[in-house]
Amino acid sequence: MRRLADAVLAMASERDITNASVAELTRRAGINRGTFYAHAPSPVVLLTRILSAELDVVRGHTSDEMEADGFLYRDVARATLDEIISHVEARLDIYGGLDRASSRYALRVVLAEHVEQSVLLVFRGGFAVAPIAGEAFAAMFAAYLAHGVVGAVEAWLQLPAPRDHAILIDATEHMYPAWYAPAPRRRADLPAIIPFTEENDESCDT
């Protein structure tokens, strides 16, 4: 599987993988078609599964923090966003080729789906309280947040290099609704929930 993963990641960093054939990929990986089909039905699905598995590690870190704290605090959300951006930077040749359909797919489908499902887990676990209850509203809130985050990432990727990691985090945090991850972790000198505003932004970063 490692050779196959390396091959699909390398191919996706060089070209549009949406029109790559299984034969091309198996030749590159040095495996047969049967081995390929044991892992995925197409190169795009394989790429999706590999990127999603990497992002699932990030989700696991966030879940551990939320389970320990019982709430999605702002520094946890920031750490999660930082990990997601680091993942995008590590796979910049895949996500950054915005003229390629597979790069747009990686951003607008794979990454957006990951963020959307992560937000739904936050809601379902009671780690954030949306202003309107119900699965339908949760689904819309999650989709709005996910595609907003991915839109910000895509705009950031179009900036000239070197890109400032911090401005993407700052921009995204300022776009969060006030009720989402509104406070830092509890500290003895702070109340449990402090709505995020520009006035308390500096103190929240410490």
Labels describing this entry:
mainly alpha, 206 residues, disordered C terminus
Quick synopsis:
This protein is an all-alpha fold. It has helices at 2-14, 22-29, 33-37, 43-69, 74-90, 92-95, 101-124, 135-157, 165-175, 198-204. The protein has one domain.
Topology:
Layout lengths: L1 H13 L7 H8 L3 H5 L5 H27 L4 H17 L1 H4 L5 H24 L10 H23 L7 H11 L22 H7 L2
Average pLDDT, rounded to a whole number, is 89
Strand content: under 5%
Order of helices and strands: HHHHHHHHHH
General form: globular
* Largest pleated sheet: none
Number of helices: 10
Distance between the termini: 42 Å
Structural category: mainly alpha
Task: Specify the helix fraction band.
Answer: 55-70%
